[in-house]
Write a structure and sequence with these properties.
With 467 residues, this protein is of the alpha/beta class. The protein folds into 2 domains: 68 residues; 262 residues, Aspartate Aminotransferase, domain 2 (3-Layer(aba) Sandwich). The protein binds pyridoxal-5'-phosphate.
Length: 467
């Protein structure tokens, strides 16, 4: 192969990608293939002589229409996924083409500076302390990990313990406070950091999944020594926000580190209309969020933000004799993330923020919330359908006939129907359909067509049940 070989195979990929993206808004949203079929197509003994690269690309692309779920569809409402902006995808293609190792400035001045600027724009957009440091990681799981590693360093350093050098054995005890409704990735991040899940102090939450401040206050009075509080902006089921200002005041009164998981909720700060939900969030010490969810850049991209640069850097930095590390204005991303070699995943963030501007991001966030409210109102007006949450953001929980089995049957029926895709959850012991609107492409008509499909399936399931 030679450098000339890039052209034909990339042209193929471009044609396949364009066809996929153009067909996506109209296609059946779910996957339509069995595991056996797909395995039969993809599995073959690894050949000795290899195959024609263009044929390999054709083979993979040929499966995407059926075997990939159309997560970028304007009528995909599963989990909290987010679509992809054209400019984000284009920038991501460039990142792959450049094949830069974004760990060190010396390897890629371009990626280092683009990410540095993108980080500053995020601080500005979220109105967080401008002295904070930003690391681009794979997702909010790793953003929680990075922030909580900085927190672990910070609270232990303040009592004279160097956790990076001496570890946790024999260290002063660190109290870790989470809520009954913390996202599972916060628990996992803490587990990776040596704080076993059984040791976590869980504060009760209210009917919307918000941490109860009265219970936190009671708990804080019983705690001494280094303490980390993990709060949440945007509950993965209800979209609810913990009362962040009150929690921040308690954290500050007790000298605790406050970390906020704002995987998608932090984006409420981009809208004046919604920012009040996250009131006081700027008082925290660290914030984890995702760009691959609500900013609609391709997977993967999470963002770790830490107010205290020294704690962040000490928890993450690595040095080795052969590294060429920088000082001053030139920034080595390796100092702010767990990864050593890494993809320049902040570059699509740079491109997307630059293309959208402040108004574009606000518009994206507000439109998604408007569509969520539209769907909640239309569904909730129908007899036998109940909306279980206060729709404050982009998340809606729907229950059918006040019945778990019926609700499950509607979810399955809607997935099979293919007009839209969504999944289920259990909320306070009740089965529910979960709708998350987080794609720039979702229009009022998409929301209406999806509601119509859900109602059609509901009537059908009821009819079959009565027969
Ligand atoms: C999605 C999500 C996470 C995990 O983010 P990943 O990007 O999947 O690692 C953490 N917290 C909340 C609230 C989430 O919604």
């Amino acid at each position: 192969m030679t450098a000339d070989d890039f052209g034909p195979v990339l042209a193929k990929a471009h044609a396949h990608a364009t066809a996929y993206l153009t067909a996506q808004p109209e296609r059946h949203v779910g996957a339509r293939c069995s595991h056996a079929e797909l395995d039969g197509v993809l599995r073959t003994p690894l050949t000795s002589r290899g195959e024609d690269p263009a044929a390999v690309i054709d083979l993979l692309a040929g499966q995407a229409g059926n075997a990939a779920v159309a997560c970028g569809s304007p009528r995909y409402f599963g989990f909290v996924i987010g679509g992809t902006y054209p400019v984000a995808l284009a920038a991501d293609w460039l990142v792959s083409s450049w094949d830069q190792n974004a760990g060190l400035y010396a390897i890629s001045p371009l990626c280092s500076v683009a990410e540095d600027v993108a980080g500053d724009w995020l601080l500005d957009l979220f109105d967080l302390p401008r002295e904070s440091e930003v690391g681009f990681v794979t997702g909010c799981q790793m953003a929680n990990f990075t922030c909580l590693a900085a927190a672990r360093h910070g609270v232990l350093a303040r009592v004279g313990w160097d956790v990076e050098a001496d570890g946790l054995c024999g260290a002063p005890k660190v109290n870790i406070v989470t809520s009954a409704e913390s996202h599972v990735t916060v628990d996992v991040a803490l587990r990776y950091l040596g704080f076993g899940t059984r040791s976590l102090l869980r504060v009760e939450s209210d009917d919307q999944g918000r941490m109860r401040v009265d219970r936190l206050q009671e708990l804080m009075q019983t705690l001494e020594g280094p303490t980390i509080i993990c709060a949440q902006a945007g509950n993965v089921n209800t979209g609810a926000f913990d009362p962040l200002r009150e929690i921040a005041q308690l954290a500050s009164a007790h000298g605790a580190w406050l970390h906020v998981d704002g995987a998608f909720g932090l984006w409420a700060r981009a809208s004046e209309r919604l920012a009040g939900l996250a009131d006081g969030i700027e008082l925290a010490d660290s914030w984890a969020t995702d760009a691959h969810k609500w900013l609609n850049v391709p997977y993967d991209c999470g963002v770790a933000i830490v107010r205290h640069a020294e704690d962040h850097r000490k928890a993450m930095t690595s040095t080795a004799a052969y590294l060429i590390q920088t000082r001053g204005a030139e920034r080595d991303p390796v100092d702010w993330v767990p990864e050593f070699s890494r993809r320049a995943r902040g570059v699509p963030v740079y491109a997307t923020l630059r293309a959208l501007g402040r108004d574009g991001v606000r518009d994206l966030v507000e439109r998604c919330c408007d569509r969520a409210r539209q769907m909640a109102q239309a569904l909730g007006a129908h007899p036998g359908i109940e909306i279980l949450n206060e729709v404050v953001l982009n998340q809606v929980l729907v229950r059918f006939g006040d019945d778990d089995a019926l609700t499950r049957a509607v979810i399955e029926g809607v997935q099979k129907d293919g007009t839209c895709w969504l999944s289920g959850t259990t909320w306070h012991g009740m089965g529910a359909m979960r709708i998350s609107v987080s794609n720039w492409q979702t229009t009022e008509a998409d929301a209406a067509a999806s509601v119509a499909a859900i109602l059609r399936v509901f009537e059908e399931v009821k009819r079959l049940g009565e027969a």
